[in-house]
Amino acid sequence: MTPDDLKQLVRTVPDFPAPGILFRDITTLIGHGAGFAASVEHLAERAAAARAESVAGMEARGFIFGAAVAARLGIGFVPVRKPGKLPVATLGIDYALEYGSDRLEIDPSAISSGERVVIVDDLIATGGTALAAAELLRQAGAQVDHALFVIDLPDLAGAQRLRDAGVTVDALMEFAGH
Length: 178
What we know:
EC number: 2.4.2.7
Order of helices and strands: HEEHHEHEEEEHEHE
Pfam family, one: Pribosyltran
Keywords: Cytoplasm, Glycosyltransferase, Purine salvage, Transferase
Low-confidence stretches: none
CATH architecture: 3-Layer(aba) Sandwich
Radius of gyration: 15 Å
Distance between the termini: 25 Å
Family: Belongs to the purine/pyrimidine phosphoribosyltransferase family.
Organism: Novosphingobium aquae
């Protein structure tokens, strides 16, 4: 299936989570066996081209695509977790959200110094979470210069924010608006 075919499998839910928002729901894509497999294959090809040595994905939907891409490539997966979820000493970063703040954590022993880590997530909007993940992985010693997404919402400029931070961004599809 082509990325254009896959785009047809993404459900748009109007006015969620607030009026005026068009929520791009990947549940319908991951529920479609051939569509999910094709999404993973497209992402894996791009991660291989970026010479990924491991894949990192942010909780929670980044786990779905990131772990599948890592398994497809036969490389490790680094879970970027919400706080308090890892049973070992962690490396963490606080970052700003549109209305408040959040925190991400990783097990720093999951990354070797200089390891080429490719970030994989379902969607890039404003880029705050992906930027924080890239910074956190870099603090742990990773080389992070590629991020892959199923969906880009270019009107929210998150991909450009990542590019400005030295990260090449690629997405399987784009949706105008937010």
